[in-house]
Amino acid sequence: MVKLSVIVPFYNVQQYAPDTLRSLRANAREDFEFILVDDCSTDGTPEILARAERELPGAVHVRHEKNGGLATARNTGIDTARGEYVTFLDGDDWLAPGYYPQLVGAIESLGCDFVRTDHVQCTARARTVHRVPVGRRDVVLNPRDAILPTDRTTSVDYAYAWAGVYHRRLVDKGLVHFTDGLRTAEDRPWIWKLHREAESFAAVNLLGVFYRRGVASSLTQIGDVRQLDFIRAFDQVIEETAQDADAKELLPKAVRTYCAIISHHLGSIERFEPAVAKKLKSMSAAALRRMPQDVLDDALDSMDLQRATKLRRLRRRPAPAGAAA
What we know:
It contains 11 helices and 9 strands. By secondary structure, it is α/β, with parallel strands linked by helices. Strands 1, 2, 3, 4, 5, 6, 7, 8 and 9 form a 9-stranded mixed β-sheet that branches. Strand 6 and strand 7 form a beta hairpin.
């Protein structure tokens, strides 16, 4: 049986894909498979992946005939995966040699549903270690307990899918798939669902994923309408959390996080195309009015004056027809 399936979506990353593939080779094992999903790239990426299919041990090459975005590409990989465990890597990031064998060893020794790891963010030549916001390490915990407190950064705010590994039983329960078609913030509903519905997890002191920031083709660097999918993503978080048995306790965290993300995008609105910036404001105003208003009032009261004032003003903004997400 395949022990680990590594799902790696690629889209127009010919500059970085060779580094990614070299790092996968340095993590190869006879019971590992690397599912390389080409999301209909239009540059030299398909040729690079075709060569990798021949040369990289365990490579499985899948190509989309239509670009579907990161969430859809990951779902294709999940549906193809045969492993007892599943993990992810993005096509412009890379790994330390021998990282995956250590990752599998960690989850096998702990016996939990999923494991979360730290990572290194790389911007040009700068390197910064980012830690899972879980204080207790190498201890099996209840994922629901790691959602709160509301006013602190917690494990649901550390949404990177590739910073961890997930047992096959979560795939079978439908907890590892992403919301199809989300172009950005696809990992937010995903991480919330994991923490609400999985039974056990752990954070470990394992550092091996290098996350490349500032890539020109990344959606985090592009100010087009795809960025606005964060509203659909967080609407889903609010809707699903509202149906939870512990909604009264969990919703304040979801609403406060949603408000913080809206504020973040408004704070860098100049990077958006003018029409998209206008749509961001109208869609954000509509989103604020869709939230549970009593929970929203409490969330705004807990935020700093500048952000809270901006969001209250936005909530009062008249919504033009068709502004809903």
